[in-house]
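quick one: uridine-5'-diphosphate bound model?
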Amino acid sequence: MYDVLIVGAGLFGCTMADLLKKSGRKVLVIDKRSHIGGNCYTEEINGITVHKYGAHIVHTSDSRVWKYLNTFTEFNRFTHAPVAVYHGKPYNLPFNMNTFSRLYGVTTPSQAEECIQADIVPCAEPKNLEEKALSLVGRRIYEKLIKEYTEKQWGVDCRELPPEIITRLPLRMTYDNDYFNDEYEGIPKYGYTEIFQKMLYGCHVMLETPFTEELANQAKLIVYSGSIDEYFGYCYGALDYRSLRFETVEFLEKNVQGAAVVNYTDADLGFTRTIEHKHFDRHCEAETSILTYEYPASYDAFKDIPYYPINNERNNAIYAKYKALAESCKNVFFGGRLGSYRYLDMDDTIMDAFELFERIEAEWMKKEE
Ligand code: UDP
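yep, here:
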C-alpha cells in the first residue's frame, strides 16, 4: 500500500513526488509514456541536449521556485532572445527597439512610440486577440509578426481567440531582446531529465503504465496530472487542445540558424518555429547540429498528445463542470497543465505543486492528530 499514487511523471507530478517523499510519504509514480519528465524531457544526442517536446526555458520571479530547482542542478545563464522571420527578413523578439528600428527605420524610443501610436487601432475593451494586438502594437507589427503565426499556431482566426494569449509577449521600449521580464532565467546545464531523476529518487516509478482502478486502490490518495476529462470518462465531453508534431533533423554544419529559436511568422510555412538545440548552451562543442521543426497540429483525444489548452468559452464551461466534479472527489487531487486545463509556465507548475503539497500535508496532519 502506498500513501500517494501520482499519475503523470511530468514537472507537476515529479515535484509532488519529491515533496511528498521528502516528508516521509511512500510514493508510487506512473506514466503512460516510456520516459519521465513529460514534455520537459531532454535527451543527449551527439553531444547536444535535445528538448524532445519543444523548447523549455526556466524563467521566474519567484525565488522559492528558483532556489528549489537549483537544489537539483546548476543553471547556465541562457537568455531567450528568439528571432522572427517574415518574408525572409529577421526581426528581434519580443517587440523592442531592435524590432521597431528594423520595421520603421527609427532609432529612439520617442520616434518608435510615434510610429506605434500612428499604427494602433484603439479598443477600450478588446474581445479577441486581433483587437487586443491592434490596440497594443498596431497594424504593421500585427500583420508581419502576429496574425499569420498565431493563426497557424492555433488553427483558427485571431478574432476567435481570447485576447490574453498575446499579452504573454512583452513590449519594451529598450534595445533588450530578453523574451522574459523575470528575475531568474536559465537552462539546466545537464538537461532536464537529470532533475526529474533526482526528484523521483526514492519513489517507485512505473513507466508505460496507464492509470487503472487497480492501481488507484493501492494508494490512500491520488494526485492526478493527466487530462481531467479523461479521468471522468469524458462525461461532459472532451476538452479541446492544440497538439504539436516535431521533426528533428541532424545537420553536418556547426551552426545552422545562429539562434536557439527562430519563429516563422509567414502563413505558408507549415512549422511555427525551429529550435537549434546547441544554442541553449553556448559551451556546446558538438561538430554537427540538431534542429527541431515544430508543426502545430489538430488534436484527437484518443491518439494525440495534448499541448495547449484552448481556453475559449465553450471549453472553460466544460472544464468548470469537471472541476466541480473533481472537488467532490475526496481523495483525488488534480493539478498541472492537463489536470487544471490551464496554460502553465514551468514556474507556475511548480508553484501549483508547492500549494497542493501544503494542502495535502495540512489535511494529513489533521487526520493524524
Ligand atoms: N506570438 C506571435 N508571434 C510570435 C511569437 C508569438 O504572434 O513570433 C503570439 C502567438 O499568439 C502565441 C503567443 O504569442 O500563441 C504566445 O507565444 P509564446 O512564444 O510565448 O508561446 P509558447 O512558447 O508558450 O508556445
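The pocket of uridine-5'-diphosphate is lined by residues 84, 93, 145-146, 149-150, 153, 165-166, 168-169, 263, 265 (CB under 6 Å).
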